[in-house]
Amino acid sequence: MNRPVSLALGVFILFSACMPDDSGPEGTPSDDGGGVVTCETGLAAGNEFMVYWRGMTALYCGIHPDEQEDATAEQGLCLSIYLGAGLVNQAHVQQNAACFDRGQGEDCLVAMSPFQGDDGFFRDDCDLSDQERAQKQALETSGSCSRVIQGRLAAGGRCGTDDGQGNTTESDTVCEGDLRCIEAVCATPLSDGDLCAESDDCRDGLYCGDSGFCAVRFSLGEFCDTDEQCESGHCSLQSEVCVAQCQ
User: Fold this and answer.
1) What is the dihedral of CA 197, 198, 200, 206, to 10 degrees?
2) What ranges do the domains of the chain cover?
3) Alpha helices, DSSP H only, in 12-168?
4) Mean pLDDT for the chain overall
5) CA distances (Å), 64 to each of 119, 122, 146, 171, 246, in order?
6) Local structure of 145: helix, strand or coil
7) What is the DSSP letter of 189?
8) CA pair distance 99, 120, nearest whole angstrom
9) pLDDT tens-digit map of 33-92
């Protein structure tokens, strides 16, 4: 995820000084069953990434960025958030910190489009059938949509960008594999009992507790205060217990 690390809002900065480099990771094209595709870096690849990202933004926000003059206030806010995040990832691609797989991007756009409602926005997950929900989750976590951007920084690589005014924007996107951006450095996700600053720093199935340590998320029916404490991602405000996603 991309996240600002300071009390002030992080500033999204577009870096465009890098020369194009269209080679894949270590110069090797990847083949994921749909033909040979190349994970690219550099200025040209960054521009191609934004073509993909603007298409994905249209799916999430219910309106294409080219039509933003006709956007509602809700759509306008959505566009600004997603386009800002896109510029951060574009900069990573242009600077060789991450690479963009065009083939996976095209597949992702096509595969995600059926989950869009008549209003143009993605349908709420609870409005999807169990099968549709599973398909969408698989696309996001292990399918084509999870492989559009691939991080290139190994453990220890710096994954935070300072805007010069004390604001740092961290990004997990630039880190290889399952590494996370923790305190602006790519690192292995934290384990149960490790000191943490936020839940995204902890391994899957854990959250960052009030005491500042990673802890196991709660099961259905267990007492909770916030959504992130629950395995399901949903804490009922009425009953103050973890509940199923769609209830």
Assistant:
1) 100
2) 2-185, 190-247
3) 43-61, 73-94, 102-112, 130-141
4) 83
5) 13, 13, 22, 25, 29
6) helix
7) P
8) 29
9) 444 457 999 999 999 999 999 999 999 999 999 999 999 999 999 999 999 999 989 999
